[in-house]
Amino acid sequence: MRTTWQPPGPLDLPQVLSPLRRGSGDPASAVQESGAWWLASTTAHGPGTLRLAADPAGAVVAEAWGEGAEPLLAQVPELLGAADDDGGFVPVHDAVRRGARAARGLRLCATGRVWDVLVAAVLEQKVTNREAWRSWRELCRRFGTPAPGPAPRGLCAPPSPRQLREIRDWEWHRAGVDGARRRTLIAAAGVAHRLERAVELGGEPGRALLQHVPGIGPWTAAEVAQRAWGDPDAVSVGDYHLSTIVGIGLEGRPMDDAEMLAALAPYAGQRHRAVRYLGAAGVRRPRFGPRLPPRDYRAL
C-alpha cells in the first residue's frame, strides 16, 4: 500500500521521528543512506512495516506492508506532526529561541498507538540507555515478528501483548530485565487494549489512565504521551538528566525537578516543546557530570 502526503510547511524527518528510535541498533527502526525511514510496528490488526521518504518536492511518500499496513498509512499525517499545534508558543529564554530557529521543521510525532512505545519506555525505567536498548533488542529480535515486506535485514516488530505474556522468567533474565520492569510489562500486557484509549483522552487524562498500571508513574506516562499522541506539555519528571539539562539551558545551573517545573512555568501547555527546542539548541548535560552506572541484571 502506498500514499503521498504533502506537509503544510517545513518538515525534518529525523527531527520528527528520532524520539521513536531506541539507539543506533534499534531492531524496530532503520534509517537508510537515502534518508528513508523504516518503522516496524505492532497494531491491533497485526504487525506492519512503514517506509517514509521525502521526495524532491517536499512531499512524503509512504509505503506499508503486512496486516497493519492500512492503519499505519492512515496515521502517517499525525505521525509526522500534522496535528501538532505550536500556535501561541512564545520563547521566553534565549536557548529556547535559538532552538526554535534551528528546528523549523520540528513537529511532535504521534504514533496513535500506546503499546510499542510503552514497552520501550518501561524498559528505560531507572537504567542507562545502553542497558535498556540492549533489552529492547533482545525482546524484539527473539520474541517479536519479522517485519513484513522488503524491509532491511533484521527489522522486526516489537512483541505483541500476547507474545510478551508468553516470555518465560529465565528469558526475561537473559534479556537483562529485572523483576520490577518485568512485572510492569506483564501487567500492562494484560490490559493493553484498554491503555490504547489514552490516545483518545490525550493530555493529563491520558497520562493518568496509563498510571493505573502498577509500575507506571509520571515519567513513563510522559515518555509514552510524547510519542503516542504528541503531548506538547508532557514533562519527563524524574528523569536522571532532564532537570540538569533544563536548568543549564534556562538559568545556567543544574536544577532539581521542582525547580525545573518552576522554570518551565512560562511554557505551560507547551513544556515538552520547550524541552525539545533546548535539545535542538545543543543544550546538553555537563560532559563530566555524574552518570548512572550500568548494571547487568543477568549477573544477579
Describe it.
The chain has helices at residues 13-17, 69-74, 76-79, 94-102, 115-123, 129-143, 161-165, 169-174, 179-190, 192-195, 197-201, 203-210, 218-228, 242-251, 257-263, 271-280; strands at 2-5, 29-31, 37-43, 46-54, 60-66, 145-146, 156-157. It has 300 residues and is α+β, with helices and mostly antiparallel strands. Among the domains are: 2-86, 2-Layer Sandwich (TATA-Binding Protein), CATH 3.30.310.20; 115-228, Hypothetical protein, domain 2 (Endonuclease III, domain 1, Orthogonal Bundle). β3 and β4 (46-54) form a beta hairpin.
Task: Provide tags for this entry.
300 residues, alpha+beta, TATA-Binding Protein, Endonuclease III, domain 1, two-stranded antiparallel ribbon, 7 strands, 11% strand
SSE layout and pairing:
Blueprint: E1 2-5, H1 13-17, E2 29-31, E3 37-43, E4 46-54, E5 60-66, H2 69-74, H3 76-79, H4 94-102, H5 115-123, H6 129-143, E6 145-146, E7 156-157, H7 161-165, H8 169-174, H9 179-190, H10 192-195, H11 197-201, H12 203-210, H13 218-228, H14 242-251, H15 257-263, H16 271-280
Helix pairs in contact: 4-16, 5-9, 5-13, 12-13, 14-15
Catalytic activity: Hydrolysis of alkylated DNA, releasing 3-methyladenine, 3-methylguanine, 7-methylguanine and 7-methyladenine
EC number: 3.2.2.21
Keywords: DNA damage, DNA repair
